[in-house]
Amino acid sequence: MTRISGIDLPNDKRIEAALPYIYGIGPTLTKQILAVCQIDPNTRTKNLKEEEIAKLQKEIEKYKIEGDLRREIQSSIKRLQEIGSYRGIRHSKNLPVRGQRTRVNARTKRGKRVTIGTVRKEVAVRMEKTTQQGK
């Protein structure tokens, strides 16, 4: 396994497909990095030479990735929550932040559906009695 920036990259994948395993590096940034390092995107990770791995490591260090990026994103969200902005409130309520509708969708953010059934007549009468006794 090739290890770059503390992440094990899969051996059997092309380097172009393996670099996005690092948090903060996507397809576009991968192409830029490979162009700067002059590495063929079709090269398998296991076929990389030591000097190519060193070049990749040195180039990737220029970007904010993994823990640093995660920490920065979390601090930005925390700042929004502390100042009480609309986006911060939406983050803390675990709802979509960017204006998506929530009436029928937003399942990814809100989680699994919870069906709220109707209260049966007997249960409603019992609940009514207990509230009257408490008065």
From TrEMBL:
Its GO CC terms?
A: cytosol; small ribosomal subunit
Say if the entry is tagged with keyword tRNA-binding: yes
User: What is the annotated signal peptide range for this record?
Assistant: none
UniProt keyword Mitochondrion present: no
The alphabetized UniProt keywords are:
Ribonucleoprotein, Ribosomal protein, RNA-binding, rRNA-binding, tRNA-binding
Kindly give the SUPFAM superfamilies that the UniProt entry links to this protein: S13-like H2TH domain
What PROSITE patterns does the database record attribute to this sequence? Answer: RIBOSOMAL_S13_1, RIBOSOMAL_S13_2
MF terms per GO, please? rRNA binding; structural constituent of ribosome; tRNA binding
Subunit comment: Part of the 30S ribosomal subunit. Forms a loose heterodimer with protein S19. Forms two bridges to the 50S subunit in the 70S ribosome.
**Which PANTHER family does the record cross-reference, listed alphabetically?**
30S RIBOSOMAL PROTEIN S13/40S RIBOSOMAL PROTEIN S18, SMALL RIBOSOMAL SUBUNIT PROTEIN US13M
Question: What function does this protein fulfil?
Answer: Located at the top of the head of the 30S subunit, it contacts several helices of the 16S rRNA. In the 70S ribosome it contacts the 23S rRNA (bridge B1a) and protein L5 of the 50S subunit (bridge B1b), connecting the 2 subunits; these bridges are implicated in subunit movement. Contacts the tRNAs in the A and P-sites.
User: Would you identify the family this protein belongs to, as annotated?
Assistant: Belongs to the universal ribosomal protein uS13 family.
Please give the name of this protein: Small ribosomal subunit protein uS13
Species in which this protein is naturally found: Candidatus Curtissbacteria bacterium RIFCSPHIGHO2_01_FULL_40_12
